[in-house]
Amino acid sequence: LTGSAWGDWANYTDSPLRAFESELGVQDPVGFWDPLGFTADGDLLAFKRRRCVELKHGRICMLATMGYITPEVAGKFPGYLSPSASLKFADIPNGLAAV
Fold first, then answer.
1. Beta bridge partners of residue 31, listed in sequence order
2. Burial of 9 by CB count in 10 Å (0-12 exposed, 13-18 middle, 19+ buried)?
3. What is the pTM of this model?
4. Mind giving me the DSSP string for 19-53?
């Protein structure tokens, strides 16, 4: 919707996409970027919910990455995971081999 082919973006003042132009993370030269049109209706509550969900999923992904890397770098806990089965933490392989 930008560029000379579509005209000047400043003229589209009634567009629902303009509702999010002042949000945190909107940067030049792209501006507010929503290629799939999730915010085409201009619903502020849905926008804020999606933003919170995106943050939550990003944090979970970071924790999962650390859980994958930490045993490789720092080693595993000493002792038994299951004393009754005589299963030690060291007996469990790292990464996808554990699945």
1. 27
2. middle
3. 0.59
4. GGTTSTT-BTTTBS--TT-TTTT--HHHHHHHHHH
Per-residue pLDDT of the chain (99 residues; tens, 9 = 90+): 455 556 665 666 666 656 677 777 777 777 778 888 888 888 889 989 998 999 999 999 999 999 888 888 888 889 999 999 999 999 998 878 888
Give the closest residue to 22 by CA, choosing from 14, 32, 8: 32
Whether 22 and 29 have beta carbons less than 8 Å apart is answered as no
CB 23 within 8 A of CB 32: yes
